[in-house]
Automatic annotation (TrEMBL):
Highest rank taxon of the organism: Bacteria
Originating species: Pediococcus damnosus
Protein's name in the database: Orotidine 5'-phosphate decarboxylase
Subunit structure: Homodimer.
Active-site annotation: D59, K61, D64
PANTHER family from the UniProt entry: OROTIDINE 5'-PHOSPHATE DECARBOXYLASE
Enzyme Commission number, as recorded: 4.1.1.23
Pathway(s) where this gene product acts: Pyrimidine metabolism; UMP biosynthesis via de novo pathway; UMP from orotate: step 2/2
């Protein structure tokens, strides 16, 4: 299994595909299409990526009333992607609606994995308390949202890697922990707050790491991807 999901945070499909085309065709890539690329390019970027053999994590982080999420998830389920996201903070009915929408929309297609964002990896303990007015610790809040997610049909969560052991211990080893907030040693954290190296994420038990700028903004992107792989395998 390839545990590295590359976040294709490019402004155009042309840039994203030029990036993908640098990799050998034998390399099976797992990529994340987020709001930036999807809002610009729509479904046709997904088709282009599938033609190139990529697995796709469509990261649109749905967060709305249950009916809207149900209808949207139904459509996402028909796009042939492997994973989709919602915000767990939308609550039990919203998570359930996302699950039901995916099941109802998939038809004969494979149902995409449903991942619930717990606390964004750009959120610090200080922001959680002072801006969001949440009285729990980050770990408590992440675990509580992960419990809400699993009870309502999610297959896993988006969290920071140091939270993965707690989630796997309390919820189960098969519940996916997909972890952004990844940097190689010495790199700037930029807007991320809860950051670890690929090696540390592997030790913590992340099922997948999501890596964007460390690879996509490197001068030699293929070499950067190999450095991430090497760190994970250390
Ligand atoms: O909590 C979250 C949820 C999603 N992301 C996404 O992951 C990548 C990370 O990019 P980097 O450049 O490696 O920081 C990005 O697409 C985010 O939208 C996240 O970082 N944290």
């Amino acid at each position: 299994m390839n545990p590295i999901i590359i976040a294709l945070d490019f402004q155009t499909g042309q840039e994203a595909l030029a990036f993908i085309d640098q990799f050998p065709t034998s390399q099976s890539l797992f990529v994340k299409v987020g709001m930036e690329l999807f809002y610009r390019e729509d479904n046709q970027i997904l088709t282009q990526l599938k033609v190139r053999g990529c697995k796709i994590f469509l990261d649109l982080k749905l967060h709305d009333i249950p009916n809207t999420v149900f209808q949207s998830a139904k459509i996402l389920s028909q796009l042939g992607v492997d994973m989709v996201t919602i915000h767990a903070a939308g609550g039990s009915k919203m998570i359930q609606a996302a699950h039901d929408g995916l099941v109802s929309g998939a038809g004969t297609k494979k149902i995409p994995k449903l991942l619930a964002v717990t606390q964004l990896t750009s959120t610090s303990e200080k922001v959680l308390h002072e801006e969001l007015h949440i009285g729990l610790t980050l770990q408590e809040s992440v675990l509580s949202l992960a419990r809400l997610a699993v009870s309502n049909g999610a297959d896993g969560v988006i969290c920071a890697a140091p939270e993965a052991p707690m989630i796997h211990k309390n919820i189960g080893k098969d519940f996916l922990c997909v972890t952004p907030g990844i940097r190689l040693p010495g790199q700037s954290h930029q807007d991320q707050q809860r950051v670890v190296s690929p090696k540390k994420a592997h030790i913590f038990g992340s099922d997948y790491i999501v890596v964007g700028r460390s690879i996509t903004q490197a001068s030699n992107k293929l070499a950067a991807f190999k450095r991430v792989q090497a760190s994970w395998n250390e």
